[in-house]
Amino acid sequence: MAHTAVPRIGHLIGGEISDSDVRDIHDPGRLDDVVAQVAVGNADHVDRAVLAAHAAFPGWRDTPVAERAAKLMAAADILGGSGEELAPLLVREHGGVLWESQTDFGLGTGVLQHTASLVEDFFQPTQFDDEQSFISVEKVPRGVAAAIVPWNMPIVLAMMKVAPALGAGNTLVLKPSPFAPAALTLALQRMAAQLPPGVLNVVHGEGDVGSALTRHPLVRKVGFTGGTATATKVLEATAATIKNVTLELGGNDPAIVLDDADFDVTLDRMLKGVYKRTGQICFAVKRIYVPRGMYARFADAFCARVDEYAVGHGLDPQASFGPLNNEAQFKKVQDLLDRTRNSSATLVELGRKLDPSSWDNGYYMLPYVVRDVEHADPVSCEEQFGSVVPLIAYDDEEQVIEWANDSDWGLGSSVWTSDPDRGLAMARRIEAGSTFVNTHSFDSLDLRMPFGGVKQSGIGREFGTAGLSEYVEDHAIRLLK
Ligand code: NAD
User: Fold this and answer.
1) What's the CA gap between 50 and 145, in Å, rounded?
2) What's the gap in Å between 174 CA and the centre of ligand 1?
3) What is the DSSP letter of 171?
4) Which of 8, 32, 237, 264 is in the most buried spot, having the most CB atoms within 10 Å?
């Protein structure tokens, strides 16, 4: 298929697009296609970007809050207006289908708008005035913030840092993932053009650039989304200069079906959260617990629905979902499938290939369901981040709660029932940042709910005032009368 000219994408430092060596970004669904050429950064680019952000900080901090909020709203308009043009580019660099990329732009725009609407109230000081003293507790930005994002939902995950960081008066240096940097950077360049130079900077690169950014002494805050293993490096890098961190990491979300769940509603809604983005969503449904008495019936119905999926290139309108994003992810999931084949569980391959002749020219995989899984099997205990999900039979509610919480992660989770009280009571017993009742997908998100994880799924929360709070310090002032 013919595409327009390959965009060449540089760093964005102090309002200038700066060129450097570039590397080719390939389409994970057509490995021969070069989608973009993106700058390769180093510690020097990081240093220049941080210095630019540091120089811009006093002016941005002192910009009236209402003006900052208005600029954030304008940035939201730009992002929203860029979606139609840039979503196909995003499809070709990260592999998802078109509606998923459009959703990424839509969610990102919503996060900017919602945050902008909160900023003025958020900055109201808390004050006490009595005979002895006047106390004012005021929120102040931290300074230069760094944002590091992964490839799976690059737009919204970036905006979950851009919005609170800039809304709160910090300046920012953002590092996109080398696996999906192009559409995000083009959108950020347009947004940054509406802001004072140096307020929003972008440096490209891999782990060494992330390391230089998180170590930089002028960076006072790191907002990171990615894997738990990388997050431990971020914590080490930030320790020496005692930086504040927000970490949004992996998950192994349980979905607990109760014996009174409505079958059709459960299947309709749950399947929105299992295979979307080829399972590469941090809060995807990653293990499903079903009462033993209805296990066979549920598993048959689940498999029948999954068998309707068609897998192909993200720009093929018939594709239910696209390829995995990159070779390492592909190999990781293949390894998990191999180990599952060699276990006592039953691996069921489902769905169909839309274009079998191009199947090997991309990181494609069919959807799988794993039946007859034990709770302790690897496919149940590890984060798969691919289109495979285990169905696990349980005997009673105590057992399923114990299994749901028997994980190093705790990001999302869900309970499925016809009884709202029973659902809420079960929800309160689950160790997770979010628990949804009768939903577990993008439909479950509400910007009024803080988003984040417990245990090794992260530190801190994003969205709304919880997200803004991560990017400010309290400055407590007391006048003694
Ligand atoms: P990753 O950890 O490999 O990479 C994330 C980012 O960190 C990339 O930009 C990468 O270049 C950068 N990085 C790599 N080494 C670094 C270092 N030493 N210092 C600083 N930065 C470094 O993750 P990924 O493979 O891009 O994304 C998949 C993971 O992200 C999954 O585990 C998934 O669950 C998680 N995730 C979590 C959320 C959430 O909100 N909780 C959302 C999406 C994805």
Assistant:
1) 9
2) 13
3) E
4) 237
**Where does the pLDDT of residue 19 fall: very low under 50, low under 70, confident under 90, or very high at 90 and above?**
confident
Strand partners, 94: none
Q: Which of 60, 53, 459, 42 is nearest to 219 (CA)?
A: 53
- How much is the CA Rg of the chain, to the nearest whole Å? 23
Supply the residue whose CA is at minimum distance from atom 16 of ligand 1. 207
41-88 residue pLDDT tens: 999 999 999 999 999 999 999 999 999 999 999 999 999 999 999 999
The rounded Å distance from CA 67 to ligand 1 centre is 33
**Proportion of the chain in helix, strand, coil states, percent, rounded to 5:** 40, 25, 35
The string of DSSP letters for 184-249 reads HHHHHHHHHTTS-TTSEEE---SHHHHHHHHH-TTEEEEEEES-HHHHHHHHHHHHTTT-EEEEE-
Ligand 1 contact via 187 beta carbon (within 6 Å) = no
Is 120 a catalytic site residue? no
The answer to whether the CB of 435 is under 6 A from ligand 1 is no
The CB of 148 under 6 Å from ligand 1? The reply is: yes
Residue listed under structure tokens 């180093």: 42
Sign, CA dihedral 268-269-273-274, equals negative
Choose, from 71, 93, 139, 161, the residue flagged as catalytic: 161
CA of 258 to the centre of ligand 1 (A): 33
Q: Which of 248, 286, 383, 470 is flagged as catalytic?
A: 248
Label each residue of 261-326 as H, E or C: CCHHHHHHHHHHHCCHHHHCCCCCEEEEEEEHHHHHHHHHHHHHHHCCCEECCCCCCCCCECCCCC
pLDDT at 150 over 70: yes
This prediction has a pTM of: 0.97
248 is known as an active-site residue: yes
- Residue whose CA lies nearest to ligand 1 atom number 15: 207
- Asked if 184 contacts 214 with a C-beta cutoff of 8 angstroms, the reply is no
Query: Are 142 and 471 spatial neighbours (Cβ–Cβ below 8 Å)?
Result: yes
Identify whether 308 is a catalytic site residue.
Answer: no
Mean per-residue pLDDT for 247-263? 97
Residues with Cβ within 8 Å of residue 446, at least 6 apart in sequence: none
DSSP assigned state of 257: E
Write out the H or E segment, with its range, that includes residue 346: strand 346-349
Predicted confidence (pLDDT) at residue 113 exceeds the cutoff of 70: yes
